Amino acid sequence: MSHYCDLAPGHPFHGPYHDHEYGFPVVDDDATLFERLVLEINQAGLSWLTVLKKRAAFQAAFEGFDVDRVAAYDEADRARLLADAGIIRNRLKVDAAIHNAGVIQVLRAEHGSFQAWLDHQHPLDHGDWVRLFKRTFRFTGPEIVGEFLMSSGYLPGAHRDDCPVQARILAAGPPWAQA
C-alpha cells in the first residue's frame, strides 16, 4: 500500500503540502485551521490533488478563510460561491463551510480560539473526535475528521516514521506527540 510520503515528494502540488504543512501543528491561526477543515470537507468524493489544484481559488472565494467574513455570508454569497468554477460547487459543502464558520465563532467566544477549543478536547481517540465533530460541525464524517486532525497535528499518522518530514514535525511539538 502506498503512502502519501511515497507519492508527494517532488510533486508540484502534493510535494509542498507534504513537506511544509501536512501534520505540522497549526499555532494561533484559526484561518488556517478553518481552511484545512473546508478543504477536507471539499475533498469528500474527490482526489486531494483536485482540492490542492483549486486551493488558491478557494482562498480567494472564501476571502482568505476569514472566519467572521464567511460566517456572515448571505444568499448572494452562496450564489457567488456556487457559480465559481474555480472551487468545488457543491451546495452541501458550501453551506457546511458557512455554517461551520459560525460554529467556530461560538467556539472562539467560549475558548478564545478554534485552536484553544481543539486543545481543550485533546487528547481524544479518533472515534471520540468523530463523535465530537459530528455534534459540533456539519459535513464531518470519519475520514474528514481524521484527515483534518492529522493535517493539523492532533492525530498521528500524517507521515511514516522514516519520512524525513516526520522528524521536523516531532521537533515542532504536535499535540499528539505531547499526549
TrEMBL record:
Keywords: Metal-binding, Zinc. Pfam families: Adenine_glyco. The keyword Zinc applies. It comes from the Bacteria. GO terms for molecular function: DNA-3-methyladenine glycosylase activity; metal ion binding. GO terms for biological process: base-excision repair. InterPro entries: Adenine_glyco, DNA-3mA_glycosylase, DNA_glycosylase. Gene3D superfamilies: Hypothetical protein, domain 2 (1.10.340.30). Zn(2+) binds at residues 5, 18. This is DNA-3-methyladenine glycosylase I. It comes from Halomonas urmiana.
